[in-house]
Amino acid sequence: MDLNALRTANPDHWSKATAIRALTLDAVAAANSGHSGMPMGMADVATVLFEKHLKFDAANPLWPDRDRFILSAGHGSMLIYSLLHLVGDTQFPIEELKNFRQMSARTAGHPENFLADAVEVTTGPLGQGIANSVGFAMAEEIQRATYGAKVVDHHTYVIAGDGCLMEGVSQEAITLAGRHKLSKLIVMWDNNNITIDGPVTLSDHTDQVARFKAAQWHTIEIDGHNPEEIDAALTEARKSDMPTMIACKTHIALGHAAQDTSKGHGALTDPQQLTAAKEAYGWKYGAFEIPKDVKSAWEEIGKRGVAERQAWEERFDKMPRAKRETFNRALALDAPKKLSATIKAFKKQMSEAAPKLATRASSEKVLEVLNPIMPETVGGSADLTGSNNTKTGDLGVFDTDNRAGRYIYWGIREHGMASAMNGMALHGGVRPYGGTFMCFTDYARPAMRLAALSKLPSVFVMTHDSIGLGEDGPTHQPVEHLAISRATPNTYVFRPADTVETAEAWEIALSLKETPSVLSLTRQGLPTVRTEHKNTNMVEKGAYVLADADTKRQVILIASGSEVSTAMAARDLLQAEGIGTRVVSMPCMELFAAQDDAYRKRVLPGGAVRVGVEAGVRMGWDQWLLGERGKFGKAGFVGMDRFGASAPAEELFEKFGITAEGVAQAARDLL
Amino acid sequence: MDLNALRTANPDHWSKATAIRALTLDAVAAANSGHSGMPMGMADVATVLFEKHLKFDAANPLWPDRDRFILSAGHGSMLIYSLLHLVGDTQFPIEELKNFRQMSARTAGHPENFLADAVEVTTGPLGQGIANSVGFAMAEEIQRATYGAKVVDHHTYVIAGDGCLMEGVSQEAITLAGRHKLSKLIVMWDNNNITIDGPVTLSDHTDQVARFKAAQWHTIEIDGHNPEEIDAALTEARKSDMPTMIACKTHIALGHAAQDTSKGHGALTDPQQLTAAKEAYGWKYGAFEIPKDVKSAWEEIGKRGVAERQAWEERFDKMPRAKRETFNRALALDAPKKLSATIKAFKKQMSEAAPKLATRASSEKVLEVLNPIMPETVGGSADLTGSNNTKTGDLGVFDTDNRAGRYIYWGIREHGMASAMNGMALHGGVRPYGGTFMCFTDYARPAMRLAALSKLPSVFVMTHDSIGLGEDGPTHQPVEHLAISRATPNTYVFRPADTVETAEAWEIALSLKETPSVLSLTRQGLPTVRTEHKNTNMVEKGAYVLADADTKRQVILIASGSEVSTAMAARDLLQAEGIGTRVVSMPCMELFAAQDDAYRKRVLPGGAVRVGVEAGVRMGWDQWLLGERGKFGKAGFVGMDRFGASAPAEELFEKFGITAEGVAQAARDLL
């Protein structure tokens, strides 16, 4: 590249973009780690985006109607940190950049949404940002349809690299965006032809432009170092009635000795090469030094949106009060006041009616009463609507001609669904829930982890949660998936035993602000075990005594979900033999762990043998079976220690010994 | 559809294809569950494939040079079971079909490779079969280049549905196939425009033909009910020098009242509609009844390959003996005789040299000695070659001009890599291993589970296995991933402490025949703890006493991987205080659990407090900390109970208390 030509063609632009490159070089050198090349390659695109298109106000990074900027290629985090420093975001003084990748800095190795207001998304695991962006754009459409374009009217801009586009989840994302004509979604592809292992052609010959066209996107190809072309492309993209992909041909690590090489992708820390690059830029300043005129120019950019924001605030204030309140309540993730009373009334009714229902059907019943009072919920399923029971009558289907629809047919895209749900939650104003078979948490797993890390209250509705799924066989029967979700920090796993517990689990899930929930629900019918109404939300305690021993307590059976009624039947068998047996229902281990010692000891006192019952692996159970054991000192577990099989469900429970008699025998064996 | 026109146009074809449809209807009706529509829609394509193109011999389903047939749309399992019954596979008598989806039947709800010889792949989780097929085609290319086209020359045929193509992993698969010009891979897309939730257009508007073209595939569009078009397309596909996708326009549930509807996707069990469909076919036979002439015609098809197989056997016998032996040894998954001696010599050398190495680097050293003596290994990495240390000097890079290359640059496709590795292992003759960051087991997870379920000895090389990854931060730091892999049945998780244990882990992993391995390896350098050479493979025991208490044993520290040296340092601190401390290295919990009670009690006797040390979550540890505890009855754990952070590694271990002093203090607290 002829840097001189670039500089002289547009010196103002050049100095602004070069500030990003210089800060990137300096921060990576200081940290002695990081990724220099990507921010250096995409500095021109980002500069034009921020200078001329992105609607934002640096002093108010949480302004609800701001455009969203997502750095899907999260390893290039210095791009976003440089930009935020330059525009005057007070959370990013120069000290933060000097502390790049150090303990407690906001400038983490990859952008983390919970460290800074202006960082919209936690990215780094490739493909996630572009998949999140679909949720952002959908949330914007839904909110715009709900509140009107006067208060909701913004774009979602994404910078994605080759890595993002090679990940499979990007295909799920772009086909969803194409299907729904998410025209306010604009992806800028950093087409630099470099991956860590070498040139992209080492592993890929895909015609990305043709691929996006096949997914019904508008596409534009530009020189990613030409500010006029960048500006024109963004203008064109904003006018399109389709989502737009701008293929930006760039040079990774522009101007550095490592330009256009995979070395340039990583940390460029050689001091001489750093100096040489700055010289080539015509940048005469010291480390972390930005000349006043360049900083002022950038700060002006940071204030570009002030008037627009103020005008928005005036328009917002003119909205009817009820609408404003709902808008703000949803944004703050406050549950509606009616939630608690609604759940209580529902529980009372169910305790009396005592239906035999699969908990997936219980969940649908709960949603039928909750969705009408929580207009912020957005439901969906990955092509298993009838099986996941996620659709209720009032939601309407989100589509190109019904943007207010609150139900999304995600197609066979579990991963894309979960990532987009995260995007919706990050966008704010909506509360996403989505369903698939429990076994396919495997597909959604990268996004479910990010929901937990990013502190998003997404609700994953996972049905067919054991061998109770039956004939579809072991490919579809979860065995280890409860353990997987429970192993993940900041995740609540609810496995309700009946309709009442399902209602309690939903009440908690829809009240959480920073924790995702996994609802583990059955395919098969279960009797109501909570036949006595209680106002208290018992699931909130994690575990509780469902039925106590009639005589001296010798056995405690601890069970979750479908196995609670099995444990109750085992209790009948044991008590008939004079063996006093307590049944503890344990719908949420995480919440039980959070109770105080005294409560936990009341529920699980010593002096009795313990048997855990759950149609899954034992992992995670020992803390309750062994950790607080008393004088008997014996414990057992009835569950699965292998994959399941294809057969009718009842036969499978019989085969694997997860029956009342199997549980009773496990207890007898310990006595 | 005018069934009459179809029937009269080609009555011979019609009766053969209708036999599939009738058997499908009968079996699903008998099971009262399953998926009728897909086999009914694709019966014509499958009939022409088996009759005119697929190289196979029904009596010898394991003939190494057979064509592979993969039903990626695994829910349509009755297609494959019908075909196998019709061609005379002795594992599929009519009784098996009558037992569809019942306990212990070969005719499981979804095809399971371990239940029947002719079922190549376990499918059902959508997108997996098409992703596996890339591995099949690569393995064929590698074997052909190695042994010559006289003994290896076959195709891989895949039937994939809309669900397969919507899953992200399919994009990773087709771009890999296109990149490598896997011309012997032929995908037949069941283009029926129906998913469970409704028409495909409900969730997708992708132009699939354009998408495959963008990925450098040859594409053909046909009427999937016209046998001449099907035949011509398959002929054309076999001649192409690119992978070929044949878009087969079909009618799901052809001829049934539910034709072309999403109801037709599921179980069609209404007896009257069943009868009406058979009438419409002109099929006058009872349930599970196949007229003699039709069955004979199919059995002739089953024998089509006999002469070809015999000729192949003659050619195979003419290969040099050494080549034959290697071919057969690799196919049988027997480790070479030299393996054990090679590992022993390497261990001796390492115990003496006692290098300080990251275990990822140890792993590279091991591979440098193993790859030359195991020509069946095929290595690779998902764009982290230099970080995963998976490439050794002698492998050569697999490419269009080097089909014998044994190293694959998978690109940023963890899921596609793992699925293709499964395909390679299923194809046979090669032993795949592949690397990524441990944290991205999340992306590969659906395929890793299927490796375990399908009994495949794939080796997943997962480096950067804790907060020791450092500055990249929590998005890249595994915390729950050891627990996730350990929760999965039939999976060995190895977390070696140094170069010697790494060699032992590789020896086991490359000797396994039916179990996948996860190698959990560090980014950071570790001292050699096994400085005293032992011929015995200690990792094989799962856990063992690395250093015993010098004085009366009061403490047992149990650690894995990078924390073993931390535990050794803690032991020094404690023993200096007169507290006798044993250190147990536990590189593989699954193997330790498989030892007899006596050994386990020798390693973990009572009478001492226990502290587990691992830079991950506690889940999975309690069985060793609490399960066999003795009279002190106290145990603790030093590890992670939250996500990590972005900072230099040493500072993170300090911050989270995973240090010698932290471990020593945990022990002191218990005493």
TrEMBL record, chains A, B:
The Transketolase-like pyrimidine-binding domain, residue ranges: 357-528
Pathway: Carbohydrate degradation; pentose phosphate pathway; Carbohydrate biosynthesis; Calvin cycle
Biological process per Gene Ontology, one example term: pentose-phosphate shunt, non-oxidative branch
Cofactor binding description: Binds 1 thiamine pyrophosphate per subunit. During the reaction, the substrate forms a covalent intermediate with the cofactor. Binds 1 Mg(2+) ion per subunit. Can also utilize other divalent metal cations, such as Ca(2+), Mn(2+) and Co(2+).
List of catalytic residues: E414 (proton donor)
Record-annotated site: Important for catalytic activity: H35, H265
Alphabetical keyword list: Calcium, Magnesium, Metal-binding, Thiamine pyrophosphate, Transferase
Chain positions recorded as substrate binding sites: H35, H265, R360, S387, H464, D472, H476, R523
GO cellular component terms attached to this protein's record: cytosol
EC number(s) from the headed UniProt entry: 2.2.1.1
Residues that bind thiamine diphosphate: H75, G124, P125, L126, G163, N192, H265, F440
GO MF term list: metal ion binding; transketolase activity
InterPro entries xrefs: THDP-binding, Transketo_C/PFOR_II, Transketolase-like_C_2, Transketolase-like_Pyr-bd, Transketolase_bac-like, Transketolase_BS, Transketolase_fam, Transketolase_N
EC class: transferase
Keyword Magnesium attributed: yes
Positions bound to Mg(2+): D162, N192, I194
Family affiliation: Belongs to the transketolase family.
Assembly behavior: Homodimer.
NCBIfam families: tktlase_bact
PANTHER family with a match to the protein in the record: TRANSKETOLASE, TRANSKETOLASE 1-RELATED
Record's protein name: Transketolase
Taxonomic source organism: Sulfitobacter noctilucicola
